[in-house]
Amino acid sequence: MKRFIIFLFLTTLFTSMTFAQDEFFEKYSDKKGVSVTFISKSMFSRMSGGKVEGGKLKDIEWVRVLSVENRAMVAQVKADVLNEFSSANGYEEQMRVQENGETTIIKRFVSKKKQCVLLLVVYDSLSIEVVMIAGKDLSISDIRKVK
What we know:
This protein is an alpha+beta fold. It has helices at 2-27, 41-46, 71-84, 140-144, and strands at 34-40, 60-68, 92-99, 102-110, 115-123, 128-136. It has a 6-stranded antiparallel sheet with strand order 1-2-6-5-4-3. β5 (115-123) and β6 (128-136) form a beta hairpin. 18% of the residues are buried.
């Protein structure tokens, strides 16, 4: 019974995390100067014949991209991204680069089921790009191998 309760709790936690990700991207989907893209696993099998060094392309479940060029929204989206995908919510910062007024952040979240989410955020005062990639225990080097 204990195992069932723990399993139920973890499933609920992971499901609510997925819904939170969906809600974040959907929140901005109908705004002017914003584009939201979703790419499914089946689309990856069609891209370049599914070829990738090391075979990691098959491990990608989905990709979401949020691109904001509406200057009035950049500060709010940045604040929402940093709040929603914080260490308090299980995201570990892997890298941060600040150069010429542009900031790049890479964060990683891994669930108990080895579901991995990589988050790439690039922003300056004029725009912000958020890329979220989900799959099985992905790393930054795996993503670089995609041709």
